Amino acid sequence: MAEGALFSVSSGIIRKAGDVAVQEIALIWGVKDEIKKLKETVSTISAVLLDAEAKKHNNEVKLWLQRLKDAMFDADDLLDEISTEALRREVMTRDKKAKEVRIFFSKSNQLAYGLRMGHKVKAMRERFDAIAADRKFHLDERSEERQVRYKARQQTHSVVRAEDVIGREEDKKAIIGSLLDPNVKENVSVLPIVGVGGLGKTTVSQLVFNDEEIKNHFELKLWVCVSDDFDVKIIVEKILECIKNEKPKDLEMNTLVNDLEKEINGKRYMLVLDDVWNEDREKWSELKKILMGGAKGSRILVTTRSEIVAKISQSIQPHVLKGLEEQYAWSLFKKMAFEEGEEEMNASFLEIGKEILKMCVGVPLAIRTIGGLLYFKKSEIEWRSFKTNELSKIRQNESDILPTLKLSYNYLASHLKQ
Ligand SMILES: Nc1ncnc2c1ncn2[C@@H]1O[C@H](COP(=O)(O)OP(=O)(O)OP(=O)(O)O)[C@@H](O)[C@H]1O
Ligand SMILES: [Mg+2]
């Protein structure tokens, strides 16, 4: 697994577990304490993660890390499920008179669901406790790693489950082709992937990052999530952390730059700078200067929503990501909105589903969210009313949607208005 990636997953878990909406729903289900304990255990384990990754040549540590990795993924999924539930609840309770809301939140329904989720959370907490207790070797805590930075944008990591990604084979092929193309002038060239929020830029970059051919081609592969803060010093620190598996000590910029150059100069590297917002050309040049010492064939992959960012950073023609093709959008929608096989039962359901899907303009985040909401609506009338009423409500009330989804709706709203 990529260096530091597990730490990002654990940070994600801690952040999600601390989310207000998650805590609110956990309170209703009576699992607030369990979530709190889960969060504490994951924090404790996170403190020794970097040391464990550094010692993974020890077989025992390696096995322990593997167990931990599996548990982390499952916990991350579980918290996503809870966040989605919280969101669904929020959207549905906006219209308090709606019958389905009353049914959905009727005591017995909630109780059954809450109980099931409660069991899942408890089992997950116990699994982490067991992993934490089952450490027969010594690992050092690196206390600075305990802190979890709360950021407006979620930190990304390089890990993805390829089987969850639908319809991006062509994009993946084109991006890889461009990354491996030997006919470029500069030693280190920059390929931007550009597209609106929620379109799957990070996801497709993860697919590329984990591809075997890419793994074999580059000597060094690095993933850095840039997000809000395009601070050259911080980015240099993050790249160094990625290479060395530990946060650089509080060093002067000059020392950091020298250190980084020592690590990358002469090596064919691939660096992903995920989620770049900086449109300031000066700052970009400053960073580029530091990164230019890589061997011929080195590549920097930049993901961004901004065409300006793509323009100022590019040295290779940007890859412009489009919405999912109809058939793939439909597959994803089906997966989210129907029980398996259920969609074949009613042709008119399909028709209205396809109309709703059009409104998602192929954006996977929108398809996932809206498909997920429709999953709980079991009649054609409900689907129709969702299309005419609730989709427009989402637009008006976008401020109370979970932040990441809000970003997707901002975009969605402008398309729906056209
Ligand atoms: N091809 C796909 N198949 C299934 N799910 C996808 C696909 N692409 C993206 N997703 C899901 O959609 C969501 C948004 O994807 P992602 O974060 O990659 O978008 P992004 O373009 O990087 O967005 P942002 O601009 O906010 O960074 C994620 O939950 C991701 O798992
Ligand atoms: Mg992204």
From TrEMBL:
Residues 13-96 form the Disease resistance N-terminal domain. GO terms for biological process: defense response. InterPro entries: Apaf_helical, NB-ARC, P-loop_NTPase, Rx_N. Transmembrane segments: none annotated. Pfam families: NB-ARC (PF00931), Rx_N (PF18052). This is Disease resistance protein RGA3. PANTHER family: DISEASE RESISTANCE PROTEIN RGA3 (PTHR36766:SF38), PLANT BROAD-SPECTRUM MILDEW RESISTANCE PROTEIN RPW8 (PTHR36766). Keywords: ATP-binding, Nucleotide-binding, Plant defense, Repeat. One of its GO terms (molecular function) is ADP binding. Residues 169-340 form the NB-ARC domain. Coiled coil: none annotated.
